[in-house]
């Protein structure tokens, strides 16, 4: 692939020794809205883990099998206790390899990161039915209805572990600021007391900041606009089996079109930990609205 959306790194181990210049270049590419693409970095399953490559392990309630936050309780899977313990160990190994990789590649982030979740996605993405808001086959930037970030970045690491050689197919859209310029004028303002009410009703786990409100508005309005989905600048990217990629998913417009069996790690990064905080969606939206948003 030769698209300018990707910053390709030929690493094949999770703990590479990199120069400070290479680390800075990777960080800058990521913050500029590019995807760090590591075609030769494979998350290898152990022999006894191969059997987890089946959609049968999903409980059918949620699209992903998850370990969340500090609690690390396995959700979304069904099976015997011994099997699920082995599956959790596989996911924890992925999580710790991601931490190792970020320490090697993006070390300045380490003191500013919080682990949000680790997921294993055993279900085929193509043809999944859902409401437009939940339809991740539509271009969107990530925003969480119940989990406000307060401006913190959403850093995600993906690895395609499909056993049949099937790529993970994404569409990737235009730069965040271009999308925001189009959709911000259509964003609904939060009404007075809305954040307090949502918190009181436990719709949100923390108070929803003005930033989180706007990010949800952008997420929903972009997904709802069929014309934009069809005509907006975009590129298809196929992530092959055995590849890993890293992306700020709150910044990069993405849509998952097809693929099955992917590992995914989500970390939250404080804006103050960035090399170029002015590139964050928080600062972009603050410049556009002329307001402090978080
Ligand atoms: Fe997403």
Tell me about this structure.
The chain has 294 residues and is an alpha+beta fold. The chain has one domain (6-289): Jelly Rolls (Sandwich), CATH 2.60.120. It is 28% helix and 20% strand. The strands form two sheets. An eight-stranded mixed beta sheet has the order 1-2-9-6-11-5-3-4, with helices on one face. Strands 8-7-10 form a three-stranded antiparallel beta sheet, with no helix packed on it. A hairpin with a 5-residue loop joins strand 3 and strand 4 (74-75). The radius of gyration is 19 Å and the shape is globular. It binds fe (ii) ion. The site of fe (ii) ion has 5 residues, from loops.
Each distinct ligand: fe (ii) ion
Structure classification: alpha+beta
Q: Count the DSSP helices.
A: 7
% residues in beta strands: 15-25%
Number of strands: 11
CATH-defined fold name? Jelly Rolls
Helix share bin: 25-40%
CATH architecture: Sandwich
Overall shape: it is globular
Flag low-confidence runs.
none
